[in-house]
Every structure is written in C-alpha cells, then in structure tokens.
Amino acid sequence: MRIAVFPGSFDPLTSGHVDIIRRGAKMFDRIIVAILLNAEKAPLFTAAERVRLIREVFTDTPSVEADTFDGLLVDYVRRQQAHVIVRGLRAVSDFEYEMQMALMNRHLSPDVETVFMMPAEQYTYVSSRLVKEVASLGGSVHGLVPDAVEARLLEKHRARTSQKA
Ligand code: ADP
C-alpha cells in the first residue's frame, strides 16, 4: 500500500491544491490531505470546515482522505504508516522554504521521502492567502477554488458586509 500525506493549511482548498491532489491520487493508493492545526492564528475556515470541504470536493475519489494533525509532521506520517510527503511547487519562490523543510524532515525521519509536484500553469499564481484577500474585497475567485469553496467564501463575504451595513 503506497500511502502519501499532503500537509498544509488549506485555508481554504484551492484549485491548485486540487490539481496536486488529483495528480497524487494517480501515484498513490491513499493520499491523506492533512491540515496542520494552529498554523495560523486566525484562520478564515475552522479545521472542521476545511476537512468538510476537502471531503465534499473528493467524494468521487475514495483514495483521497482529509484529516487534521498537530505536532511534528514526520510523527504524523509515521502514525499513518506513510512513507511519502507530497508538496506542491509553484515557482522558484517556493523552492527555498520547501527544500529546507524537506531536508529537515529527512534529518528527522530518513525513511520518509518528500515528492514535489507542479500544478497546471493556470494555478501557479494561486494561493489561499490571495484567494482570501480577493474574496474579502468582493472580487471573483471563480475557477481558482472548487465551487463548494467559492460558495462558502461568498457566504462569508456577505455575512461580513451585512454586519457592516
Ligand atoms: P502551507 O502553509 O503548508 O504552505 P498551503 O495550504 O498554503 O499550506 O499549501 C499546502 C501545499 O500546497 C504546499 O506544498 C504548497 O506549496 C502547495 N500549494 C499551494 N498552492 C498551490 C498551487 N496553486 N499549486 C500547487 N501547489 C500549491
């Protein structure tokens, strides 16, 4: 059984993440999308909401699972009996941080391999942070996030603007 863990904040899941997960699902028997708890002080989506959205988007792909974790990633990977960490690489700017993380994780757990995947070009500029910023200002994020995520972002935007009014 080839099991991979795709860790991140996923606040929220974007089409770039979905692209990487679908590529991973072709390579591994199980891919666990693992949400790091308490990574951000004030996330827009609760961990439970993020898990729910990932499950909703991947209902058609049972090999894709959603979970949360805290503590060391390599400990979580070991608990899941996985040997691969999947990460996405968008641009050179991602590289330095990703290389440090991969080498640190290798130092901590030499039998865990990090695999990098590149998304389709149209997602290379997409990040959760930018998506949240655009949506909070009323801009369209259609296509940049799954439809279910877009709907939740719109709801949150409406709730905020009606509070202000
Ligand atoms: P983190 O805080 O760990 O970077 P993210 O949720 O932002 O969490 O990202 C999780 C993983 O997904 C990272 O490997 C990141 O490089 C990758 N990723 C984020 N956005 C994209 C995208 N548009 N295309 C491909 N990979 C992406």
Poorly predicted tracts of residues: none
What is the spatial order of strands in the main beta sheet?
Answer: 3-2-1-4-5
How far apart are the termini?
Answer: 54 Å
Mean pLDDT, all residues: 96
Compute the CA-based radius of gyration: 16 Å
Largest sheet: 5 strands, parallel
Could you explain the architecture of this structure?
With 165 residues, the protein is of the alpha/beta class. Helix content is 45%, strand content 18%. Strands 3-2-1-4-5 form a five-stranded parallel β-sheet, with helices on both faces. The radius of gyration is 16 Å and the shape is globular. It binds adenosine-5'-diphosphate. Adenosine-5'-diphosphate binds at residues 8-10, 14, 16-17, 20, 39, 87-88, 90, 94, 119, 123, 126-128.
Please tag this protein with its features.
alpha/beta; 165 residues; binds adenosine-5'-diphosphate; 6 helices; 5-stranded parallel sheet
Give the SSE layout:
Layout: E1 3-8, H1 15-27, E2 30-36, H2 47-57, E3 64-69, H3 73-79, E4 84-88, H4 92-108, E5 113-117, H5 128-136, H6 147-164
Parallel strand pairs: 1-2, 1-4, 2-3, 4-5
This protein binds adenosine-5'-diphosphate.
Describe the structure in brief.
With 165 residues, this protein is an alpha/beta fold.
